[in-house]
């Protein structure tokens, strides 16, 4: 299996618009080469009769069913508010208008 070169890492960095120093290129090239080698080894192990998965355990929907229930009246909702105005919470202004 051919190894990934420093020039290929530099080319990928340019494509991704990532600026890498010479030291970083020298450091990353062997690491990326090792990652590619290990991915190749995992691909060899995968058997054809095993379906691809995204999770180790099956996922189930944990949402409850929608039920109509009575909601609070505006007065009940605003009963603990420090200030209310026109059936809404009143909060201090944080932006100045021109």
TrEMBL record:
Subunit structure: Heterotrimer of A, B and C subunits.
Keyword Cell division recorded: no
Keyword set, alphabetical order: ATP-binding, Ligase, Nucleotide-binding, Protein biosynthesis
Family, as annotated: Belongs to the GatC family.
Xref: SUPFAM superfamilies: Glu-tRNAGln amidotransferase C subunit
Name the record gives this protein: Aspartyl/glutamyl-tRNA(Asn/Gln) amidotransferase subunit C
Pfam families: GatC
Catalytic activity from the UniProt record: L-glutamyl-tRNA(Gln) + L-glutamine + ATP + H2O = L-glutaminyl-tRNA(Gln) + L-glutamate + ADP + phosphate + H(+); L-aspartyl-tRNA(Asn) + L-glutamine + ATP + H2O = L-asparaginyl-tRNA(Asn) + L-glutamate + ADP + phosphate + 2 H(+)
Enzyme class: ligase
EC number: 6.3.5.-
InterPro entries: Asp/Glu-ADT_sf_sub_c, GatC
Taxonomy, superkingdom: Bacteria
Function: Allows the formation of correctly charged Asn-tRNA(Asn) or Gln-tRNA(Gln) through the transamidation of misacylated Asp-tRNA(Asn) or Glu-tRNA(Gln) in organisms which lack either or both of asparaginyl-tRNA or glutaminyl-tRNA synthetases. The reaction takes place in the presence of glutamine and ATP through an activated phospho-Asp-tRNA(Asn) or phospho-Glu-tRNA(Gln).
Annotated Basic and acidic residues bias: 85-98
Ranges for region Disordered: 76-98
